[in-house]
């Protein structure tokens, strides 16, 4: 899997959070060849214009450690901010030199909008209702249990591109599981007559 891009001799890791590409202040400074802290200062000056969860996400230390961001921030970072595509465009609005114009266009097209297909992210095959109806009950149970487990293990990491696949799989799995549960409901012959 490709996990970085090179933009003007700067290698940038491909970061995703909640299904969106994001950048750090340090990444913006580096690619725009600005002094360290320039992007963060621009953000702080215009903080009232940025909307949380639309223009940026605030990450806690737990999220940083569990979402593969640990290499990007100092070890004991309590919380930090990552910027979305819309936030990036607002953030670099004051950067008006020729390089900034060029970088903005390249970063939007090559980083934010060029979301590659991840070959290792293959959807789990979930049996259709007709297939489940044609299977013995035990086989149908095993097939759905295996599909649920594979879906969770392959695509269950929050905030990843795989999570979008997991959501689509759950839309198929939930009704199939509900159907199977209704088929499994125990009935004891003659119990209805005993009432």
Fill in the keyword field for this structure.
195 residues; alpha+beta; two-stranded antiparallel ribbon; two-stranded antiparallel sheet; 9 helices
3D structure, described in words:
The longest helix is centred in the C-terminal third of the chain and has 24 residues, at 161-184. Strands 1-2 form a two-stranded antiparallel sheet. Strands 3-4 form a two-stranded antiparallel sheet. A two-stranded antiparallel sheet has the order 5-6. With 195 residues, it is α+β, with helices and mostly antiparallel strands. It has 2 domains: 4-112, no CATH class; 129-194. The protein has helices at 25-31, 38-45, 61-66, 85-91, 98-112, 129-134, 137-155, 161-184, 191-194; strands at residues 4-7, 10-13, 15-17, 20-22, 56-60, 79-83. The protein has 9 helices and 6 strands, in the order ββββααβαβαααααα.
- CA radius of gyration: 24 Å
Which geometry do the CA atoms define?
elongated
Calculate the terminal CA-CA distance, rounded to whole Å: 63 Å
What's the average pLDDT? 80
What is the helix content? 40-55%
**Which class best fits the helix and strand makeup?**
alpha+beta
Main sheet overview: 2 strands, antiparallel
Lateral arrangement of strands in the main beta sheet: 1-2
Number of helices: 9
Low-confidence stretches: none
What is the N-to-C succession of helices and strands?
EEEEHHEHEHHHHHH
The count of strands amounts to 6
The structural domain count equals 2
Range of strand content: 5-15%
């Amino acid at each position: 899997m490709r996990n970085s891009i090179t933009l003007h001799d700067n290698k940038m890791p491909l970061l995703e959070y909640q299904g969106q590409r994001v950048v750090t202040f340090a990444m913006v400074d580096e690619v725009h060849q600005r002094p360290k802290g320039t992007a963060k200062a621009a953000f702080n000056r215009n903080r009232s214009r940025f909307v949380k969860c639309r223009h940026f996400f605030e990450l806690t230390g737990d999220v940083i450690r569990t979402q593969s961001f640990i290499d990007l921030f100092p070890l004991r970072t309590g919380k930090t901010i990552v910027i979305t595509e819309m936030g990036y465009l607002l953030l670099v609005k004051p950067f008006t030199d020729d390089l900034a114009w060029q970088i903005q266009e390249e970063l939007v097209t090559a980083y934010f909008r060029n979301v590659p297909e991840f070959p290792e992210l293959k959807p789990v095959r979930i049996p259709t209702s007709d297939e489940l109806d044609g299977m013995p009950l035990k086989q149908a149970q095993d097939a759905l249990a295996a599909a649920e487990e594979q879906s969770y293990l392959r695509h269950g990491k929050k905030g990843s591109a795989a999570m979008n696949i997991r959501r689509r799989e759950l839309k198929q799995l939930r009704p199939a599981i509900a159907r199977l549960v209704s088929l499994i409901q125990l009935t004891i012959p003659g119990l209805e007559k005993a009432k």
